[in-house]
Design goal:
Order of helices and strands: HHHHHHHHEEHHEHEEHEEEEHEEEHEEEE
Structural class: alpha+beta
Shape: flat
Helix content: 40-55%
Strand content: 15-25%
Strand order of the largest sheet: 13-14-15-16
Number of helices: 14
């Protein structure tokens, strides 16, 4: 019963999201010509803030609400009745995003006949893609070709001094890479030296060695930005961990092992917040840029957004007389730096926080993260109507 309620509430929220998106688009276009992409960014950003999620998730929810009303009548009905969860509904919508409303309706009808509400997520995903390929084979082939252009490598920080390095590749290339690493395990197993590592460890070490050209995986050259207290650097017995912007706390001894070159860069803080100098340049550069990125933890300063910092923004715009100094700078992702320039958006410093005002007049406050290991790391975010 509670699961049905959750799904039904999510469906109701989706309807509200669509109504807001349409109303805001009409109000913006009524005042003159508006760039479609900028308008979509603005709407997605507002939905993200209101739902307390990232703008990427806000955009996904907006597009899902739109597409549900463009051919997915039966799926939408199951969603509203609580028979399909939000995640399973989103899986169907994403797999048919390239279809026209008429083509979606054909898939929608076939899914209802297959009792999609009784299937698991993987089966729903595979069935929906199969039906989409049957309904529009040329579009399906074009979608697969276009997907190859999205190949990329990304890194995400993980807990306990680890990180996830992900390669998004065509399936044949991904399998070939994995097979090469698996072959390295077999080579290590028949080596005369005793094997003291697990299969996963051998594959991971081989991956690092072949990419970096190092003799062993641990001997990579790194530069580490470490925030004070300095006890974490100078006292081997100190329990205080190092603080790496964007990655969090890490024991110092884990960063100083191996024979690779390790460079320490000390950043000065006051009450756990990095402080720095100023500049007369329009662009934040050099140490000033490093200080701002470190203070913001290498993440976007906007509320609910965890994307990596891509741009350094003037809180009080340069064109409006803002200066290029530490207190007037903040790290933003590419999305929020672009949406900031959309009509109706404004940012200002109020006390220790930055207040963002959306085109509807809603205000969101994001305060600086306290980076001092002796303090509890928190981010205070609140919405004020």
């Amino acid at each position: 019963m509670l699961e049905e309620r959750k799904a039904a509430i999510a469906a109701e929220q989706s309807e509200v999201i669509l109504a807001f998106a349409r109303a805001h688009a009409e109000s913006q276009t009524a005042t003159g010509t508006v760039e479609p992409e900028a308008l979509e960014r603005s709407i997605a950003a507002q939905i993200g803030l209101a739902c307390r999620v990232s703008p990427t998730e806000g955009r996904r929810r907006m597009r899902m609400a739109r597409d549900l009303h463009a051919g997915h009548d039966q799926i939408r009905a199951l969603f509203a009745a609580g028979q399909l969860s939000e995640y399973r509904t989103a899986t169907i919508v994403a797999a048919t995003a390239h279809l026209s409303p008429t083509e979606r309706a054909q898939v929608d009808h076939a899914l209802a006949e297959q009792h999609v509400d009784t299937l698991g997520v993987r089966r729903i995903h595979d069935l929906t893609r199969t039906l989409a390929a049957q309904v529009a084979p040329e579009k399906f082939a074009a979608r697969c070709r276009a997907a190859r252009t999205g190949r990329r490598v990304s890194v995400r920080p993980a807990a306990d001094g680890m990180a996830d390095l992900t390669a998004h590749l065509p399936v044949a290339e991904a399998v070939a890479c994995y097979a090469a690493l698996a072959a390295a395990v077999n080579e290590a197993a028949v080596s005369p030296e005793p094997l003291t590592r697990t299969r996963g460890q051998v594959m991971a070490d081989t991956f690092v060695e072949r990419l970096t050209g190092q003799a062993t995986a641990q001997d990579v050259n790194v530069e580490i930005q470490v925030l004070v207290p300095v006890e974490a650097l100078v006292d081997p017995g100190s329990p205080l961990p190092a603080q790496i912007p964007g990655h969090g706390p890490v024991p110092v001894d884990l960063l100083t092992t191996g024979t690779g070159r390790t460079t320490w860069r000390r950043l000065i803080t006051r009450h756990g917040v990095v402080i720095g100098g100023d500049s007369r340049s329009r662009l934040f550069a050099g140490r000033l840029a490093a200080f701002i990125r470190a203070r913001d933890g290498g993440r976007c300063r906007e509320s609910y957004c965890d994307a990596p910092t891509r741009h350094l923004d003037h809180i009080h715009r340069w064109t409006d007389g803002g200066t290029t100094e530490f207190d007037n700078g903040r790290g933003l992702c590419a999305f929020h730096n672009q949406v900031r320039e959309t009509r109706g958006w404004n940012a200002e410093t109020v006390g220790a926080g930055i207040v963002t005002t959306t085109p509807t007049g809603t205000r969101y406050t994001s305060e600086a993260v306290v980076a001092d290991p002796l303090r509890v790391t928190t981010v205070s975010q609140r919405s004020v109507a």
